[in-house]
Amino acid sequence: MLEARAICKSYRGQPVLHPLSVSFEAGRTTALIGPSGCGKSTLLRILIGLVSADRGEVFVAGERFTPESARRLRHRMGYVIQEGGLFPHLSARDNVTLLASHLGWSAERMAERIATLRALVRLPEEALARFPGQLSGGQRQRVSLMRALMLDPEVLLLDEPMGALDPMIRAELQADLKEVFAALGKAVALVTHDLGEAAYLAHEILLLREGHVIQRGSFDELLKAPADTFVTRFVQAQRWPEESP
Ligand code: ADP
Ligand code: MG
């Protein structure tokens, strides 16, 4: 559904992504994990077309990202970032409908879609009238998720969507996200720095280090068949309590 082929990216002569290839399939959630600065956010920005790669290509459902196709293909992808990225001067509802209204959707169609999404992400009706600053962190991320899903994209990219939430709210949103991902059957790429979260939410984990994919596999495979000592060290450093002896 979403594929990146041989992506290279440098900033000021410093390589951030080495030739890196990755694909994401419909109905599957893949967690991108790795030390801070290993290129997770850059990869996601390249996948959604916010940053251009120095070399390499991105395909959405087999169609290549080009300056001409970018806008159209971007509408087939939803993107959620850590702080939500909502416009502070627009109500939650207007944030969610901004693009659809720009694309000429009727008021009825938008209202119908909002009702579906609100139920899906469990956002109280009254929250839609509020501005982002008047919502809790968890509610803001639910609104961001609604916005990302408004056009019913085939691909969902999330960059540490729960990174700024306190533990209780985070656990709630994790559980709800798991249901949402399962219900929608989209190709999901989720950046997280929390291995427990990756194991809970994703079918597969993609472990990155300095712009290279070190290993891709289930949590179990990372534990039992680490590709190298970095994998073992990374897993141990996370000290996931449930899995520790
Ligand atoms: P991660 O999300 O894995 O923490 P990033 O993709 O944000 O990592 O960053 C990877 C590397 O690229 C870091 O060394 C970061 O400093 C650098 N980098 C990211 N964006 C920029 C930018 N716009 N300009 C210069 N360097 C950047
Ligand atoms: Mg990042």
Summary keywords:
2 domains, globular, binds adenosine-5'-diphosphate, 9 helices, binds magnesium ion, 6-stranded mixed sheet, alpha/beta, Rossmann fold, 4-stranded antiparallel sheet, about 240 residues
Counting structural domains, the number is 2
Order of helices and strands: EEEHEEHEHHHEHEHEEHH
Please identify the oligomeric state.
single chain
Helix content: 25-40%
CATH architecture of the largest domain: 3-Layer(aba) Sandwich
Distance between the termini: 39 Å
For the largest sheet, list the strands in their spatial order.
6-7-8-3-9-10
- What hetero molecules are bound to the protein chains? adenosine-5'-diphosphate, magnesium ion
Strand content: 15-25%
CATH top level of the largest domain is Alpha Beta
InterPro entries: AAA+_ATPase (IPR003593), ABC_transporter-like_ATP-bd (IPR003439), P-loop_NTPase (IPR027417)
Protein name: ABC transporter ATP-binding protein
Organism: Chondromyces crocatus
GO molecular function: ATP binding; ATP hydrolysis activity
